[in-house]
Fold this protein.
Amino acid sequence: MNTKFLVGLEPPSRATLSEQVAKQLAKRIAEGEWLPGEKLPSEAELRKAFNVGRSSLREALASLALIGLIRVRAGDGSYISEQPSIYFTSPWLRSGRLADEKTLREFAEARLSLEAEVAGLCAERITPQQLAEMDLLMEQMKASIHDAEAFAKLDLSFHLCMGEAANNGVLNNILSGIREQSMELITKSLLLEEGKENALRGHGKILEAIRTHNVVKAREAMRAHLQLFQRSYTVLLQDRQPNKG
């Protein structure tokens, strides 16, 4: 199996490293280095090729799975998707305001910063009734795992409920504007099973931190939840940019 990779990854942060690995893998997939249905090299081979740790590699693979380029089979490895990703066969990404990497990064950074703080405030201030409502939303999301439209509405309700529990009207109003601009991205991310499964895992960790009133863990869980989607869209935009030369 061909294991030739681009080298020279920049060292700054784990998030940046995983993003670079994802971009390089996406580029090679687009160039046809692996055929649809073909298995990628093992994690050990990929880690050695890119000189990165297990966490960075797995975050990169999760980003590619989220946008439909690969399918991760538990205990068996990662495979190139048999069918083209819905993201690469439709013009949705170019149709809205989030049409370039700089704009997307700015929205993602704003949402990450604000929602992490909202999660922390929610953990501090949530009432038993609001917690019960969030528990119910989680159960409804699990039941709607195969219904992308219903799941997306419940996902939004989960975040809105958290915003109300934070009890800060100014933050909530700012976030409402950001969510409106990025709603298409959020909805599209839930069309694939990997997107819904990732959302469920992320929400579960956030909710558990909120339940125990752990402000620090609630913020960390929200950051991790949003960073995965941010990295996935960055990879997608990078791959769709016209070649420059």
About this structure: Residues 1-12, 87-98, 239-245 have pLDDT under 50 and may be disordered. The CA atoms of residues 75 and 226 lie 26 Å apart.
